[in-house]
Amino acid sequence: MFTGIVSDIGEIVHAEGTDTLRRFRIASEYDPATIAIGASIACAGICLTVTHLGEARHGRTDSHPGAWFEVEAASETLRLTHAGQWHVGTKLNLERAMKIGDELGGHIVTGHVDGRADIILREDIVPDDANWGATARFILRAPRPLHRFIAAKGSVTLDGVSLTVNSVVDDRFSVLLIPHTLKVTTWGARRTGDSVHLEVDLMARYAARLAETA
Length: 214
Fold this sequence. Notes:
Helix content: 10-25%
Largest sheet: 6 strands, antiparallel, barrel
Distance between the termini: 28 Å
Number of domains: 2
Order of helices and strands: EEEEEHEEEEEEHEH
Shape: globular
Number of strands: 12
Number of helices: 3
Strand content: 35-45%
């Protein structure tokens, strides 16, 4: 389980494999000594299992931190997500699995991507005090039938980031990102026309299922 609060931006430094299985080496700020083989790390919102980890042979650089871990993505993950298009240099929002007693700053996230949402508009909002930085409003289109799980003032996970839904009109919904979130996640680089990993709220999913079977 995760919370949707990103704790690092990783960078893919090696990628290999086929359409049925791909392996990625991800450079990050995480201390390898604190990660166990078999641990789960959310990578752009996808829960992936750590298979190898270590320190870079030549140490740290600005673009390639010294620590790394490897994960593998099988055919179902490659089909549902963008992982098949990840390449050397791709930046990923990262989050370690939550521990009992951790602060739940976002909402309960499983890391099981439901589909992909398309960004149909990005609107930057610059405040009077430019030193504060701009916020950004994104309008996205959710794939059907996932749109029925998205509600105004509810939670949604996009590329691993827990966000509050501002408005919903049919299959379109909007979210507003503050300057801090734009800075510490990959959302600062997101533009109109991009698509992102979507995980709907767990409670909304179960509530809909209960309604169907009542």
